[in-house]
Specification:
The complex is a heterodimer of chains A (482) and B (217). Chain A contains 19 helices and two strands. In chain A, strands 1-2 form a two-stranded antiparallel sheet. Chain A has a domain at 273-482. Chain A has 482 residues and is mainly α. Chain A has helices at residues 2-20, 25-51, 65-94, 103-122, 126-144, 150-185, 193-198, 205-223, 231-238, 241-266, 274-294, 300-321, 323-355, 366-369, 371-384, 391-406, 411-433, 449-463, 467-480, and strands spanning 54-56, 61-63. In chain B, helix 1 packs parallel to helix 5 (126-145) and helix 2 (28-53) runs parallel beside helix 6. The longest helix of chain B is centred in the C-terminal third of the chain and has 29 residues, at 176-204. The chains are: A mainly alpha (482), B mainly alpha (217).
């Protein structure tokens, strides 16, 4: 029952908030709905702790160690983003960037997007998973073009078409998995993940091979794997900042989650190693292209969009390696990246709003204009490039160790990419944070609480992974197999 | 079943023919008609599969497809084309014979790719899987070659038609819930795109993708 509530609350919220329109209650309503979702996620977590994984509603919804922390993460980031967006979006309206009439659409689509994310994570049905991912594209395409600028519309169009075609290929892959499972499980259960998992060794390998190729290309478009990433920097740069935060922090994770689930089926319980190799290839190329594209960026949000490509590539690489250590590291990495990257987008959004531009050459002396904002920017950037003691350091370290054991040839490439990324981001951040201030001092925006909360959690992740989370990661790694 | 093999093959061949016709059609209004024809063929083939399988769910699916793809979406597209005043615009395409040759190449490729799939299970006919894969590739080709936003979208919708055709011919359709979900996504997608077009036109005075993308650097 609780699983049903997790998806129903944001759905109902989307309808109600759409009806509220531009009234002032929209912002607090958005926070209230997100808080209710978070509470539902906590109740669900308690139940998982007591009873273990369970399915609900005729096996259509389920939760297991792999999805439980992703649901919590999604609900948490959705909540903090809604808190952040209250201050941020009000300021956008006040500054005249956004028409107040768009706010109803913004809130409704925000909740619709959270609904699709939670549905994708809790659904046991790979067909519903696909529908939810397509729904996520539809809801966020409207959000990316919220400002109605030329650049925004172009970004939204690109996003819509590229992800639409990508997902069409993923649908083809899903149809093929259904076809392969059809003869083993019968029409009614051939789409249920829990059932597919138990017969994964008996699915026809040639069909699963073709299916997985379509699925990795399809969902990989949404993860932003190179060379399918063309939409990602535009969509992140042109949409409103809270949307960049949830795109990077949630959507990419959920798409990768889908790929990982299918990888387990395609490798058929360790019979075939090639799905992992395919992911290693895609991941490594993404890490390298992402890292080397960072240096040429001038747009603040574009810079971190490329950093998302790099990090998702790293996670894909680690999932591809497989095995307990690499999978553990990959799960830690997507958790830490999601929290850190949304903190980065919160802070950079605030910085861009303060400076009145996203052009990094023209942003300077943030720490003089507001020390709290400046230091938060510095801290979140240090966290994202993987300096200790933040969580990303821990996960990148573990990934490197796993790579050293399983694919030593890739270690120099990874270290090179991480070094380049560090240099590119740190150079830019340092110039923005320090330097001569070109404007008056400003008061500390209350929305800074959101990134600070995230950074605190990432710090905890980096210093000592909570035992509960470690247990989930280990169990999930066991579930995903070698 | 055997008595149905001939009509199903015929429908599959017609489906491929329409895919080629769409590839070479310059006028938007005709393109929309072709899309409706493709929907008709799809509906008939689902109905035929329903008859062969005696399945109520496939009949429902055929009805849904018919309402959506023969009536609703073409009406929406026509209205959009009329309101944007582009229905009789002639689109400049790459040389049509070249396009046809590329298309032929894709069909041959698709038939080869379909071999391993067709080797397994209870497939009506190996050729049908090949045709379905070929129409997917042809729809993708159409999206690449088209210059205006609306015809790209029709290419996208044709791609979705081909996917449903694959599902029908390979597995007798997906479960009902999934088909409803896909249909819902399509219809919402068309609505959102409609909204998009007006915004794009407002901002760019054109729906020509090349002009939109030139802004980039």
């Amino acid at each position: 029952m609780i699983l049903l509530w997790i998806v129903l609350i944001p759905l109902i919220g989307a309808v109600v908030l759409g009806a509220l329109g531009q009234r002032r209650a929209g912002f607090s309503g958005n926070i209230a709905v997100s808080a209710a979702t978070l509470v539902a996620a906590c109740v669900m977590t308690v139940r998982v702790l007591n009873d273990g994984p369970f399915t609900a509603w005729h096996h259509e919804l389920f939760v297991d160690p792999l999805s439980v922390f992703l649901v919590d993460l999604t609900a948490f980031v959705a909540f903090t983003t809604s808190v952040f967006s209250q201050t941020y979006m009000r300021a956008e309206v006040r500054l005249g960037h956004l028409k107040p009439t768009s706010l109803g659409l913004y809130h409704a689509m925000y909740q619709a997007f959270i609904f699709t994310m939670l549905l994708a994570l809790t659904s046991n049905n790979i067909g519903v998973l696909w529908i939810a991912m397509e729904g996520a594209t539809l809801s966020t395409a409207l959000l990316v073009s919220l400002y109605r600028t030329q650049a925004g519309l172009e970004a939204a169009w690109k996003y819509f078409i590229l992800c639409g075609v990508g997902l069409a290929l993923a649908l083809l892959g899903t149809i093929m998995v259904y076809f392969a499972a059809h003869s083993v499980l019968g029409a009614h259960q051939a789409l249920l993940w829990t059932h597919l998992y138990s017969v994964r060794g008996r699915l026809e390998p040639p069909i699963m091979a073709i299916a997985f190729v379509f699925l990795i290309v399809g969902y990989g478009t949404k993860v932003g794997l190179v060379p399918l990433h063309a939409w990602l920097p535009d969509a992140h740069a042109e949409g409103p900042t809270p949307i960049s935060a949830v795109l990077s922090g949630l959507l990419l994770n959920v798409a990768l989650y889908a790929i990982v689930r299918f990888k387990v089926l395609a490798s058929g319980g360790a019979v075939a190693a090639w799905p992992g190799r395919l992911m290693i290839g895609f991941g490594l190329v993404s890490v390298l292209v992402g890292a080397f594209s960072l240096g040429g960026q001038r747009d603040l949000k574009r810079l971190f969009a490329y950093s998302s490509i790099e990090h998702m590539g790293l996670a894909t690489f680690a999932f591809g390696l497989g095995g307990p250590l690499a999978t553990f590291a990959a799960l830690l990495h997507i958790t830490a990246h999601s929290l850190t990257k949304s903190a980065v987008f919160f802070t950079t959004g605030q910085v861009a709003q303060t400076a009145g531009t996203k052009d990094m050459d023209r942003i300077t002396g943030i720490v003089d204009r507001n020390p709290a904002l400046g230091w938060t920017l510095m801290a979140s950037c240090l966290a994202i490039v993987g300096t200790p003691p933040f969580g990303i350091f821990a996960s990148e370290f573990l990934i490197l160790i796993a790579a050293l054991h399983q694919a030593p040839w890739s270690v120099p490439l990874l270290i090179l990419a991480l070094g380049v990324a560090f240099a590119a981001i740190f150079r830019r951040t340092q110039a923005m944070v320090f330097g001569v201030a070109d404007g008056p001092r400003i008061s500390t925006p209350p929305s800074l609480l959101a990134p600070l909360a995230h950074l605190l959690l990432v710090l905890v992740l980096g210093l000592a992974i909570p035992p509960l989370l470690a247990t989930w990661y280990t169990e999930a790694a066991r579930l995903l197999g070698p | 079943m055997t008595s149905l093999a001939a009509p199903i093959n015929l429908l599959a061949a017609l489906f491929l023919l329409v895919a080629f016709a769409m590839l070479s059609q310059r006028r938007l209004a005709n393109l929309i008609s072709l899309y409706a024809w493709q929907g008709t063929i799809l509906t008939f083939s689902i109905a035929m599969a329903a008859y062969a399988d005696h399945s109520a769910h496939l009949y429902a699916s055929a009805l849904l497809t018919g309402v959506l793809k023969i009536v609703l979406v073409p009406i929406l597209l026509r209205r959009l084309a009329r309101r944007l005043d582009l229905q009789w615009d002639r689109e400049s395409l790459v040389q049509i014979p070249t396009v046809m040759l590329i298309g032929l190449g894709l069909v041959i490729f698709a038939f080869n790719a379909a071999l391993p799939i067709a080797g397994v299970g209870h497939i009506i006919n190996h050729a049908i899987v090949g045709i379905a894969l070929a129409s997917i590739l042809l729809s993708l080709l159409m999206m690449i070659l088209r210059a205006t936003a609306l015809s790209q979208v029709i290419g996208f919708l044709a791609l979705e038609n081909s996917l449903i055709f694959v599902a029908t011919s390979v597995t007798y359709g997906m479960p009902m819930v999934i088909e409803f979900g896909i249909a819902l996504d399509v219809i919402v997608g068309v609505f959102i795109l409609g909204v998009f077009f007006f915004h794009i036109r407002e901002q760019f005075d054109s729906l020509d993708i090349a002009r939109i993308e030139r802004r980039e650097e």
